[in-house]
UniProtKB/TrEMBL annotation:
Entry-linked NCBIfam families: tig
Protein name, per record: Trigger factor
A GO cellular component annotation in the UniProt record: cytoplasm
Phylogenetic lineage: Bacteria, Pseudomonadati, Nitrospirota, Thermodesulfovibrionia, Thermodesulfovibrionales
Gene Ontology MF, one: peptidyl-prolyl cis-trans isomerase activity
Domain Trigger factor C-terminal: residue ranges: 253-399
Claim: Coiled coil is one of the keywords in the record: no
Catalytic activities: [protein]-peptidylproline (omega=180) = [protein]-peptidylproline (omega=0)
């Protein structure tokens, strides 16, 4: 039972518990009887072994189970009773042990969400962002699609950058290749290699000497190599004619195709505008609210970001200040959004969580079960996914309550 709460700081509390000896003993006896029902003891039928034998053989197991049960139940009741908002699991600073015939006394330290004074999030000014699509933007998309949908066709003209060539080569270091396909100007050989082939025609043979740096491809790294090259084939990308591209992509007319592009660009611009407004709102919330950050939560976020840096091969020592600042900002944002969501009564239903899983599955062309397995293997739960939906709903509220102003009015 909760005896008292010691305030270590605004974000850290020490919960003090004491459970009467008779309650502890009653729980131990109940646990032993549960074990007795299933225990297989030589010479006794299942469930008929004397409790004294069960206690001798399984006593410690029963005590461990009771300890875990009493501590977790007491903690849950205390959190509810004291209206605390824990951010991370509690920590026992000292070992917790059950001593038979004695009260169970223990303490748990828990980090809680700090109280935010004067929480203000209505009428935050955000700039209106232009989302109109211009005709020139549509034309740029069409030209790019004409290029992307084009195919490489054989040509007898001299080679130029971007052409695909098929060559045979021999080298003075014993390396050679047949029907080697290479895109001029695209690597991995040095630029001089492509330049040597540019301007040549199909059927030509020629020599060129290339200096390879130490970090070049393995066979030639750090060497000066003479190539004897025969140009066997040249292919050049032919773009789809402008007036044919809509047919290539399955549209009935150019007008229908342009309408489709316009709608997609408008949707993309609107989404970008919303994301930018969310960033602006969050920045203003962070700038206008000050409160103590929970140390443990900051440390956890620092650890997460550090692992992210390590996976990218970035130097941790040189970036520690940046990591620390980012962690503090993330934690502060998390607490603010959670507090706003709670004030607005935001919840995430099971149906909304299922819909999020379906949306992710469609977006990445995987099964819903695959999405669930990914989050479960990474985090051990779907909490991160649930938090994502929660934060999105909070941002929707913030945007609906914001004050959108013209660019020249922005302050």
């Amino acid at each position: 039972m909760l005896k008292g709460i010691e305030e270590i700081s605004t974000t850290k509390k020490r919960l003090k518990f004491e459970i009467p000896a008779d309650v502890v003993e009653e729980e131990i006896q109940r646990a032993l009887k549960e074990i007795q029902k299933k225990a297989k003891i030589p010479g006794f039928r299942p469930g008929k072994a004397p409790l004294a034998i069960i206690e001798k053989k399984f006593g410690q197991e029963a005590i461990s189970d009771v300890l875990e049960k009493l501590v977790s139940e007491s903690y849950r009741k205390a959190v509810k009773e004291a209206n605390l908002k824990p951010l991370v699991p509690p920590i026992a600073e000292d070992a917790i042990d059950i001593k038979r015939k004695e009260p169970l006394s223990f303490e748990l330290v828990v980090e809680v969400r700090p109280e935010i004074e004067n929480l203000s999030y209505e009428n935050i000014e955000v700039e209106e962002i232009e989302t109109e699509v211009k005709d020139e933007e549509i034309e740029e998309v069409i030209k790019r699609l004409c290029e992307e949908r084009g195919s490489y066709e054989p040509t007898d003209e001299p080679t130029r950058a971007g052409d695909l060539v098929v060559i045979d080569y021999k080298t003075d270091i014993g390396k050679e290749a047949k029907d080697f396909v290479y895109k001029l100007g695209a690597g991995p050989f040095p630029e001089d290699f492509s330049k040597a082939i540019e301007g040549k025609k199909k059927g030509e043979s020629f020599n060129v000497t290339i200096d390879f740096t130490e970090d070049s491809i393995a066979d030639f790294a750090g060497k000066k190599v003479n190539f004897e090259i025969t140009l066997k084939e040249v292919k050049r990308k032919q773009t789809v004619p402008y007036e044919e591209i809509y047919k290539e992509l399955g549209f009935e007319s150019m007008e229908e195709f342009k309408d489709y592009i316009r709608k997609n660009l408008e949707n993309a611009k609107k989404q970008q505008a919303i994301e930018q407004q969310k960033i602006d709102i969050l920045k203003k919330l962070l700038d206008t609210h000050e409160f103590e950050l929970p140390e443990g939560l900051v440390e956890m976020e620092i650890k997460r970001i550090t692992e992210e840096y390590e996976s990218l091969g970035l130097d941790i020592t040189q970036n520690m200040d940046k990591i620390s600042e980012r962690a503090k900002r993330n934690v502060k944002a998390y607490i603010l959004l959670e507090a706003i969501g709670e004030k607005e009564g935001v919840t995430v239903s099971e149906e909304e969580l299922k819909q999020e899983i379906m949306d992710i599955a469609r977006r990445y062309s995987i099964t819903p079960q695959g999405v669930i397995q990914y989050y479960m293997s990474r985090d051990g739960s779907l909490e991160a996914l649930q938090n994502s939906v929660f934060e999105r709903k909070v941002f929707d509220i913030l945007l609906s309550k914001s004050n959108k102003i013209k660019k020249q009015e922005a302050v």
